[in-house]
Amino acid sequence: MKSAEQFDVIIVGAGIAGLYMLYRARELGLLARVIEMASDVGGTWYWNRYPGARCDTDTMEYSYSFDEQLQQEWEWPERYPSQPEILEYLQHVADRFNLRPGIAFNTRVDAANFDEASNHWRLRTGDGTELSARFLIMATGCLSEPNIPAIEGMDSFNGPIHHTARFPHEGLDFNGRRVGVIGTGSSGVQVIPVIAERAAQLTVFQRSPQWTIPARNRPVDPAAVAAVKADYPGFRAHVRTQPGGDSASTTVNDFSAMSVGAEERKRIFEERWQLGGSSFYNSFNDIKRNPESNDATADFVRSKIREIVKDPATAELLCPDYTLGCKRGVIDHGYFETFNRSNVLLVDISAAPIEAVTPDGLRTADADYALDIIVLATGFDAMTGALLKIDIRGRGGQTLREKWADGPVNYLGLQVPGFPNLFTITGPGSPSVLSNMVVSIEQHVDWITDCIRYIVERKHSSIEATEAAQEAWVAHVNAVANDSLAVSCNSWYLGANIPGKPRGFMPLVGFPPYVEKCEEVVAKGYEGFVLT
Ligand code: FAD
Ligand code: N01
Q1: Are 446 and 344 contained in the same domain?
Q2: Which ligand is nearest to the CA of 209?
Q3: What is the pLDDT of residues 483-517, one digit of tens each?
Q4: CATH number at residue 465
Q5: Ligand 2 atom 5: residue of nearest CA
Q6: Which of 12, 32, 426, 512 meets the CB 3.0–4.6 Å disulfide criterion with 432?
Q7: pLDDT tens column, 471-486
């Protein structure tokens, strides 16, 4: 790359968001460049190569809707596609729309400074190269910065230690090995059953048990696929009207769990449990709002755990006691069954925390565990981690780190006052991780594209959210969150998984009202923004 290369738009990240943003920017006739630190496209699906990685959004929905021919031609094999299948799809998209020439791979953005004299962003990459652009679009991902816990002695371990989101491309041979997995979130729940099948011994270090529902993955039903493809635009439009931007919500039983008798409630839960997937959470319309309904649902799931897991002490350790649906919903592929295997041991590190990694394994407060491989399924510095890793400086040299010292603040999850012409795709304060993310990404990319077109056509030099708009928006995001049960436990939505991270609910609940608000802002001539 040449020094101080000039672009109209620079996009950071070549995941689902960055690829689509590049496609749209080119449509506008803008000179655009994507900067990506990985060696290929895919983002999440490039990095998370742990065995068992797959998505939990139905296959016909977790895909781009912007090109009719693409969605007609692409064939998904299963209800929940695996990481290699999604990566292959994104590679296909990059090739099909000739996106690769617009992407600088193996290049990390380290700093971005707003130059007030020229209204341009100046970027510095890992190798010291400088680039400049009028618009800077962060497609850096909500779940892209791994959370690597600072455990004493990590460097002393004799074997490999890998985070699930930084898994080796060539894979890891677990055969005959003693493996330790730390973490039982979505990644842990996926990787644990697969490692258990291969390893000599698997020790699972659990800090919090997990609410999880059987996925019941299966090959796609050709008749259902044909029905969707007969009117894919209509299907997409319908999905966008749903609270989570996915059709799982369409199957909600629109009555309270408390409005039916105990036997009928159990029958409905059982029906949904057998159906599998996240539609279980829609067995009734108030599971995530009404504490009584939530308790009844939790009791049902705990009864299932006790039914599946044969050793009563292990079953009790696996039974969560915090609000169901408070952390991100998880669906699994034989998770609880795995703990019936003779080569699997569950260790409760909430009672006896991990003290150190030793050359031969892991030491907790009450025992030593001999291990050959350690897998960190410890999640992400979510929503703000990747953004704050970059030294972003806006008007007056103010850093984003200073601006967000007490937690992320912005307007619509799209723009931060003081940082003109900088947009965040699925930023905090937008539905993002509480929705089907492809739907949210497309909505943001389309909004940003229209906004840039508007600015260019009217010959404005910059757009910047106002402090007043930010204040009102942050208050709104908090009010909506406080109205749900999602704030009642420690989760990464609140930043609670990262030591020292300010606590605050980051995403916005509810996709359709958010879209309405975004459209209203545009209809009112970009209300809440200053166009210069
Ligand atoms: P990402 O895919 O995270 O891409 C961001 C890119 O930015 C990365 O490639 C990264 O390398 C790059 N980048 C970051 N910082 C820099 C920098 N400083 N310089 C250069 N490059 C940088 N969502 C769902 O809706 N449904 C699912 O079923 C689902 N399953 C998931 C499963 C897993 C294992 C994980 C981790 C997440 C899952 N998600 C799911 C969320 C998922 O992250 C999104 O669906 C989507 O892939 C995000 O795309 P993105 O382009 O916004 O971000
Ligand atoms: O991360 P997590 P994840 N010592 O934060 C534990 C998406 N995703 O990678 O709960 C010991 O959920 C932590 O314990 P606790 C999805 O959005 C989707 O699993 O904090 N343990 C927890 O058990 C998901 O929500 C899929 O007490 C430590 C685990 O590690 C998001 O990504 C698949 C620890 C981390 O769980 C993140 O999921 C994968 C420490 N220091 C990911 N630090 C799909 O299926 C953390 N833990 C769609």
Answers
A1: no
A2: 2
A3: 888 888 999 999 999 999 999 999 999 999 999 99
A4: 3.50.50.60
A5: 379
A6: 426
A7: 999 999 999 998 888 8
Q: What is the CA radius of gyration of the chain?
A: 23
36: which 2 tokens? 């990506």
- Give yes or no: residues 326 and 257 share one domain: yes
Whether residues 290 and 414 fall in one domain? no
Same domain, 368 and 434: no
pLDDT tens string 7-21: 999 999 999 999 999
Cα separation, 8 vs 307, whole angstroms: 59
Distance between CA atoms of residues 141 and 417, nearest Å: 21
Q: Which residues line ligand 2 (CB under 6 A)?
A: 55-56, 143, 147, 149, 164, 182-188, 190, 207-208, 328, 349, 354, 377-380, 433, 492, 497
72 falls within a domain: no
Instruction: Please say whether the beta carbons of 180 and 371 come within 8 A.
Output: yes
Domain count for the chain: 2
Beta strands in 262-404 (DSSP E): 330-332, 344-348, 354-358, 361-364, 368-370, 373-376, 391-393
- Are 139 and 11 contacting, i.e. CB atoms less than 8 angstroms apart? yes
Q: Which residues sit with their C-beta closer than 6 Å to ligand 1? A: 12-18, 35-38, 43-44, 46, 48, 53, 55-57, 62, 108-109, 139-144, 187, 386, 390, 425-426, 436-437, 441
Q: What are phi and psi of 313, to 5 degrees?
A: -65, -40
DSSP state of 125: E
Please report how many Cα atoms fall inside a 13 Å half-sphere around the Cα of residue 144, on the Cβ side. 26
Is the model's pLDDT at 1 over the cut of 80?
Answer: no
- pLDDT for residue 239: 93
Q: How far apart are CA 31 and CA 3, in angstroms?
A: 16
Residue 422 near residue 402, CB atoms below 8 Å: no
Regarding whether 439 and 333 lie in a shared domain, the answer is: no
Same domain (yes/no): 355, 486: no
Residue 43 CA to ligand 1 centre (angstroms):
5
Q: Which atom of ligand 2 is nearest to the CA of 189?
A: 19
The residue whose C-alpha atom lies closest to atom 26 belonging to ligand 1 is 57
Tell me what pLDDT residue 46 has.
98
By most ligand atoms within 8 Å of CB, the mutation choice from 164, 166, 187 for ligand 2 is 187
- Contact by Cβ (8 Å): 285, 254: yes
For residue 504, what are the domain limits? 5-41+99-145+382-531
From CA 445, how far away is CA 442, in angstroms rounded?
A: 5
Partnered with residue 112 across adjacent β-strands are: 123, 392
Query: What confidence tens digit (pLDDT) does each residue in 425-453 have?
Result: 999 999 999 999 999 999 999 999 999 99
Burial tier of 108 (Cβ tally within 10 Å: 0-12, 13-18, 19+): middle
Q: Which of 151, 160, 175 is nearest to 378 (CA)?
A: 151
Model pTM? Answer: 0.97
Q: Tokens 């971005």 correspond to what residue? A: 112
CA of 189 to the centre of ligand 2 (A): 9
